[in-house]
Automatic annotation (TrEMBL):
GO molecular function, one term: siderophore uptake transmembrane transporter activity
Topology with respect to the bilayer: Multi-pass membrane protein
Name of the protein this chain belongs to: SusC/RagA family TonB-linked outer membrane protein
Signal peptide: 1-31
Keyword Membrane: yes
Record organism: Phocaeicola dorei
Recorded GO CC terms: cell outer membrane
Subcellular location(s) per record: Cell outer membrane
Major subcellular location class: membrane
Pfam family name, one: CarbopepD_reg_2
Protein family (similarity comment): Belongs to the TonB-dependent receptor family.
PANTHER family: FERRICHROME IRON RECEPTOR-RELATED (PTHR32552), FERRICHROME OUTER MEMBRANE TRANSPORTER_PHAGE RECEPTOR (PTHR32552:SF68)
InterPro entries reported for this sequence: Beta-barrel_TonB, Beta-barrel_TonB_sf, CarboxyPept-like_regulatory, Plug_dom, Plug_dom_sf, Secretin/TonB_short_N, TonB-dep_OMP_SusC/RagA, TonB-dep_OMP_SusC/RagA_CS
Gene3D superfamilies given in the database record: Carboxypeptidase-like, regulatory domain, TonB-dependent receptor, beta-barrel domain, TonB-dependent receptor, plug domain
């Protein structure tokens, strides 16, 4: 009953919201500013304004001492007070989102300007070619001679003959240029990301001054994300945020990416951060069916986001920053703010396009000396060619004429690199057009994006269409409205199959002497499967896999919000928002049915088969927040917010499998003679929440934030479904404090801040984990009831994560150098996990147990190493170190270790032991060794092994956790030319190469070049007999390499990669003035150019066989490393 009541509450909340909108108290008035003062300073005026309003000011401290004449304003607007105070001072201002930015006049100059005055005109743009509005343009040394740029970035200024012009703008580096007699001077200004007054987007979309935050937030602007035109938001984030790690499946276009921030905290793969787009929770689920035995990775839902629409991304790390977002934010938040329209004359029209080509880079290291065959140890005593052998243990490829598998006779030679020759050169092009406009009270922006990608995998394609509209208006001084709708369609065809039955696994087996072109005829006139080994299920023709096993998926998505804001006063307002996220995904896979011995259900599938499923997902969030922010005294400022949220989710999935198609290639359900399988599934979940926070600031250098939230979850039992969690964050700007008591830091120290925070957050579980249920399964024409094999638990409690954080931010040499250091420690207890259970629960039982800790440091360094009139060199560095450790599992259930990759029959398992680091790699078969560590061989000269789980689990062969992740990003700017790069690095951690192990077993891996050719292909395995004697027994090379164990294929996963490179040029407006184009930037872009350092055998040290928890520990049949090159164009009209 309680669950039903919880589900009905969205109607009540929506009704309350409608009432709120209709009955808005329009009689409330906005407070006006009263200011009557004799001569004073600008700093005193600002304090007075702040005490009467909720406006924040950002300006150089030197401006505070600017003298201001007497002012007498009664119930005036902010603009009227500022105009009166700044009259004749040469100081300009800009108001945005209740923030006032003050721009200083030009710097003083001791020498006298002389010479004939002349008029200089030009355009000021940013690094992307976007016009900058309101840039302060000043004659150096003359504060009364200045202007600002118009809506198109244009300016006109009278300048003495030998005068210099100073260009200054909030958030950008000032530029001082000398016209040298030129009448046209165009300027490209570079962002100053190290400004003390930096404003970032935080929880609930609230803009806060970064120096007042007590926790770590890292923000990326759109130009940082889109430097190389990456169509994936997640891929564009990689290497740019300290502490953010990605597990990316190497499976082609749009492959899934799992993101973790500050390590894994959950033992059930619930480690993903929450995605928020313009205040709307955005589901980043994956419908991947991939596993060791096949399936397809259909990518992450974040692929639906158009990167060109993004203004900025704030990464809120851990519970400390994300406490206000509730249980789903326990792993951090990726907070995306999209672009909006701004005030301008006419429409702002922009176009961006990217054209890129992708090619295979490196592949698994293979030998090219030997061909198909086996080693005859009885009669010939040598390597023997045999066209029917599946192994590559044959003789040296000598070019002699031999009969091949298909009956043809041709040279016994090496016919290329199969892992490269099979693939195509991929081509992608993306286009985005946006139109925006705004006035003092209204704004809108609409955009249309199209992306079309052909992958390196033959016949693979991925396309995306995006349409976005956001608009807002002030109805009057009390009420404003804002809304957004975003639509997308993402469609993929023929994504590569995973694992054993995928094309890459098959390519790794083909002998050097087999011609790949001969396999393109993959079936004969009877539709029988044609392959170099004959038609078998275990070894398949890679072109059969390509053409006969096809798939497609398509996702339609709509998300958006409508919000209303009511201003009771200048410092108190109420906002209400209704947000939604809906998508429909359709997945189809087909099997053309050409005969393969060993196909499942061959008696049921006499011709073709098709599987189709469809999922409908919907989430809504209704939210009301009361916010206040006021300067109570000259020294004390108080802000608060209190609100409630109702979240509701619904998912429905239908699936059907048919066979015996009437018309070959006509993939329609009503063209099938056989209904093979059918399924229907779904869930509902809801969460009610109330939350609040208080922000207290003293003299702009001491800030304390307190938050609290309580969630009620429908997925937990009624006695445990309510969980409360608080947070506290303290920021102390040491430099400002010392300056206020006249004891400033040395002049070379520009800024110093210390911060502390503590937070707690709860996590619920997925729906329907409380009670056991029955379901019905229709398979091969038979309907049968089935029951769960996992014992549910109606006493589950929420997981509780507690986190502590301390940090230090320092800036030096007038912001030319700075760093941000963070230490954190988190503990997650009451883990919701499965443990073994007695019969009949073969799948185990759910319990609350286990504790995981994460401890680490993050370090961000940013610097401007060189800065001259025409040239600048910036260098940014991100570093992070994290240790995830399992303190305990379930000792009361006698569980002291567990595995995570149970679905794949690999020779290794990934798991953890109580008291040890998370992510250990265990070999299920280890060499048997004596007390000296020598390998013991049997009477046949082959190594003996240990396969007992209780033994190998205590002898891990590696661990996936890196010791250090790091990125280095240098940027060089010379006039209109910008060169930037991103080096992505990881040091430590291990990876097991199952790809190389298989290739070694069949004689194709490079390490098998040493096969004892000079000794009739006989070798001796290094070791001792059981009696302790040195082994001298000879075995064939194929036996030798076939007896190697997993520990021989474990590699250091460290790497240094040149991930991004771009070289761009922004054309000066003088070259464009006779065209309709007012800005143009063209760039050469490249992604994933090369590994500068790695230890794996040609394969990527980042690859994983799928995207499940810790699958990055295993490399198996992954798509080879690819590199991308292209051009990017940005136009403004």
């Amino acid at each position: 009953m309680k669950g039903n009541q919880l589900m009905r509450k969205p109607k009540l909340l929506r009704a309350l919201l409608i009432l709120l909108f209709v009955a808005a108290p329009m009689q409330w008035t906005r407070a006006q500013i009263v200011l009557s003062t004799p001569k004073t300073t600008l700093g005193a005026v600002i304090k007075n304004i702040k005490s009467q309003s909720n406006y924040q000011f950002f300006y150089d401290d030197k401006l505070a001492e600017t003298p201001v004449n007497a002012i007498d304003v009664k119930n005036g607007s902010l603009q009227s007070v500022l105009d009166a105070a700044l009259q004749g001072k040469g100081i300009t201002y800009k108001i945005e989102d209740n923030i006032v930015y003050l721009s200083a006049p030009g710097e003083p100059q001791t020498s006298q300007q002389t010479g004939q005055e002349h008029t200089v005109t030009g355009t000021v743009v940013d690094a992307t070619g976007e016009a900058l509005i309101g840039v302060n343009v000043q004659v150096k040394g003359n504060p009364t001679a200045g202007t600002i740029t118009d809506f198109e970035g244009n300016y006109s200024l009278s300048v003495p003959g030998n005068g210099e012009i100073v260009f200054s703008y909030i958030g950008y580096r000032s530029e001082t240029l000398k016209p040298d007699g030129k009448n046209v001077l165009n300027v490209t200004m570079q962002e100053d990301t190290q400004q003390i007054g930096e404003v970032v987007v935080t929880a609930l979309g609230i803009k806060r001054e970064k120096k007042m935050l007590g926790y770590a937030v890292q923000e990326l602007k759109s130009d940082e994300l889109n430097k190389t035109g990456d169509p994936s938001v997640t891929s564009a984030l990689q290497g740019k945020v300290a502490g953010l790690q990605m597990n990316t499946s190497a499976t082609g276009l749009g492959g899934s990416t799992k993101i973790t921030i500050r390590g894994n905290s959950s033992l059930t793969d619930n480690n993903q951060p929450l995605w928020i787009v313009d205040g709307v929770p955005f589901s980043d689920t994956s419908t991947s069916s991939a596993s060791r035995y096949g399936g397809v990775d259909r990518g992450s839902a974040s692929m639906d986001i158009n990167p060109d629409d993004i203004e900025s991304i704030s990464v809120l790390k851990g519970p400390n920053a994300a406490a206000l977002y509730g249980s789903r934010a326990g792993n951090g938040v990726i907070l995306i703010t999209t672009k909006k329209g701004s005030k301008k004359d006419g429409f702002g029209i922009r176009y961006s396009g990217n054209f890129t080509w992708t090619a295979i880079g490196e592949t698994l290291d293979m030998q090219r000396r030997y061909g198909q065959g086996h080693i005859d140890t009885k009669d010939a005593k040598t390597a023997v060619y045999d066209k029917t052998d599946s192994g590559s243990w044959g003789p040296v490829l000598d070019g002699s004429m031999k009969e091949a598998w298909n009956g043809e006779t041709y040279a016994y030679s090496n016919y290329g690199d199969k892992l490269k020759d099979y693939f195509d050169t991929g081509f992608s092009h993306t286009h985005n057009v946006s139109i925006s406009n705004g006035t003092e009270k209204s704004h809108f922006r609409t955009s249309f994006g199209y992306s079309d990608n052909d992958g390196v995998f033959p016949t693979e394609s991925l396309s995306r269409v995006n349409a976005d509209l956001n608009a807002g208006t002030e109805l009057n001084k009390w009420v404003s409205m804002d809304g957004k709708i975003s639509l997308s369609r993402t469609k993929a065809d023929n994504r590569p199959l995973y694992g054993d039955y995928g094309a890459i696994s098959q390519l790794m087996r083909i002998p050097n002497n087999v011609r790949l072109d001969d396999l393109k005829q993959y079936s004969d006139e009877t539709h029988a499967h044609v392959n170099w080994t004959g038609p078998t299920a275990s070894i398949r023709n890679p072109y059969y896999v390509l053409h006969q096993r096809q798939n497609s998926d398509e996702r339609w998505r709509a998300f958006g919000y409508y919000s209303m804001k009511i201003n009771f006063t200048d410092w108190l307002h109420l906002s209400a928002k209704y947000a939604f996220d809906y998508y429909r995904t359709r997945v189809q896979s087909t099997n053309a049915g050409d005969g393969i011995n060993g196909e499942a259900n061959t008696s049921m599938i006499t011709n073709d088969s098709m599987d189709r499923s469809e999922e409908n997902f919907f989430e809504s969030n209704a939210e009301v927040i009361l916010m206040g922010d006021r300067q109570l005294t000259d020294n004390f400022r108080l802000g608060f917010n209190v609100g409630g949220n109702f979240m509701y989710q619904r998912s429905e999935t239908l699936g059907v499998g048919v066979g015996n198609m009437v018309d070959k290639g006509n993939w329609m359900l009503n063209a099938a003679n056989l209904l093979r399988t059918g399924s229907e599934d779904g869930y509902k979940r809801a969460m009610n929440s109330v939350f609040g926070s208080v922000q207290m600031a003293w003299k702009e250098y001491l800030s304390l934030d307190l938050t609290a939230r309580n969630d009620w979850s429908s997925t937990l039992p009624s006695g445990n479904n309510s969980f409360f969690y608080p947070s506290a964050n303290l920021s102390f700007v040491v430099s400002d404090f010392l300056r206020s008591i006249d004891k400033p830091l040395p002049s070379w120290v520009t800024f110093a801040k210390a911060r502390l925070s503590a937070a707690q957050v709860g996590k619920d579980t997925s729906p329907y984990q409380l009670y056991n249920t029955y379901s019905f399964k229709f398979d091969n024409g038979v309907l049968t009831p089935t029951k769960d094999n996992v014992k549910m638990n109606d006493q589950l409690k929420p997981e509780i994560a507690t986190s502590y954080e301390a940090g230090l931010d320092m800036k030096f040499l007038n912001n030319r150098l700075g760093f941000d250091f963070t230490y954190y420690y988190s503990k997650t207890k009451n883990q919701i996990m499965k443990v073994p259970a007695a019969a009949p629960w073969s799948g185990g039982q759910w319990v609350n147990a286990g504790m995981v800790t994460n401890q680490g440091v993050e370090f961000m360094l940013y610097s401007t190493l060189v800065e001259t009139k025409d040239f600048a060199f910036d260098l940014n560095v991100n570093m992070a170190h994290n240790v995830s450790k399992v303190k305990e599992l379930a000792p009361e259930e006698n569980v002291n270790y567990m595995f995570f990759n149970g679905d794949g029959n690999f020779p290794v398992k990934v798991g953890t032991r109580a008291g040890h680091k998370l992510g250990e790699i265990y070999a299920t078969s280890l060499y048997k060794r004596n007390e000296n560590g020598d390998i013991i061989v049997n009477e046949n000269g082959l190594p003996m092994t240990v396969t007992n789980e209780s033994e190998y689990v205590n002898k891990p062969i590696g661990n996936i956790q890196p010791k250090l992740t790091m990125s280095v990003s240098p940027t060089f700017t010379y006039k209109g030319i910008t060169l930037s790069a991103l080096f992505d690095m990881k040091f430590g951690g291990d990876i097991f190469s199952y790809s190389e192990m298989l290739a070694t077993g069949n004689g194709l891996a490079k390490r098998t070049l040493n096969r004892g050719e000079e000794n009739n292909y006989m070798m001796v395995f290094p070791g001792v007999t059981e009696s302790g004697e040195v082994n001298t027994k000879q075995v064939s090379a194929s036996e030798y390499y076939g007896s190697l164990q997993a520990e021989d294929f474990i590699y250091d996963a460290s790497f240094i990669k040149l991930k991004e490179l771009s070289i761009g040029y922004s054309f000066p407006s003088s070259m464009l003035k006779k065209t309709p184009v007012n800005s143009l930037n063209v760039s050469f872009v490249a992604r994933n150019l090369c590994y500068l350092m790695k230890h794996t055998p040609g394969t990527s040290p980042e690859g994983g066989y799928d995207t499940t928890m810790f699958s990055q520990a295993i490399d198996y049949a992954s798509l080879p490393f690819t590199r991308t090159f292209g051009i990017s164009i940005n136009l403004g009209f």
